[in-house]
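Tutorial handout. Part one gives the primary structure; part two gives the three-dimensional structure as tokens.
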Amino acid sequence: MRHSRRLRTAAVTLPLLLAAVGCQTAGPVERPAAKGASPTGKPVFEERLADQLSAASRATAATGSARFTATVTYGSAGGSAVERTTGVLDYAKDTARVERTVDIPRRFPEKAATEDLGRAPGATARERFAVEENDVSYRTSRGTWLRYSASGSMDFADSVSGFLEYAGETAPWGRTLAEVVRHEHPERTPEKTGDGGRRYELKVYASSASDALPDDVALHLDPGAADKVPLTVVLDKDGRLVRAEADFRPVLGVLHAKGVLTGVSSLRAQYVLDGHGRTTVPPVPAGERSEDAEQVTTTMDKLQPGACASTDTGLGSLDRVLKVPCGKDAELRVFGRARVDKTVQGDPRGVGEAAAGEKCRARFRSAPAAWTSGARPAGSYTVYGGTSISYEYTGPDSTVRGDYTCYVTLR
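Part two.
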């Protein structure tokens, strides 16, 4: 047989219907120590033009600290969804304290909201995070911190590798345009700003700029593709990064063709820094308990039928869930499992999901009422899983395999 490939779709709740989800993430990155203002020790603007942005990243880190705001804006006919992340960075100690808000209008495209942004239209969320070197912690609604450590087991690190990228390479908090700027090489002489700084206008590969987008969107911009997006970078008179902005409108067609962010008509990312060298990262408040996320979370396939879980993990996905007793803290309850192994002639796409949906339909009808009566909406369930497709060397046959979890949403 030829190689297998995984199809990635998203979990959707439908009355007695189905959907499926897989996950694909990138591995954690190794973070270099902060260095001087430039590789040669010269002022940033005296470096070769191609080296000035990497030198600016070093000069920014050399200040020791800063405040930042990172914004991703998704425009649509139904209004703009905005993800805004603010926080303080300590480059010297490699720490950060961060708050993220997500606001999605009620008329925002439902598929883009639920499948790509992980939120329902009309949702408003506020989340808090802390970074300590390679560890990223999330504060749950219960007031405890879930600590995701890159030093955990390989299976655990793989399952949350996208989340661990919040421990950035260029700055203590990652997945912002700071990660993009550091690796770009200007070719056009920058414009001098009124305060003695510089403004650079570049065209950069979309797959590189996608480091500033949520992982579930970024993974659809293929490395090696020729698509480029405009990037503007502004440095202050000392060569430190103060603003960067990328316009992803040129690649929306690529995303739409893959069924991603459909209905979204504009997509922009922005990053603003200030308070260079004058910012203090506060400690996690005394008395707030920290838990090892590897110990208190699990994957969906490990939940037994009848078990409950919470999605209050900071991951924004079902990659891992919190094991909780069935009750007020539970957000979902598993009522069955479905395995698919089918030989298919013709197009195999969607076959695994359809077969899993039929099996979960049967599980739903036969499950104890206590497991399904709390479903929201009533009478609905969701299928979570992934499909792999293997093709025969000869002939039209393919094999579709997948393991799925059947569950109801409780609130």
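Part three, for discussion. The longest strand covers residues 332-345. Residues 293-409 form one domain.
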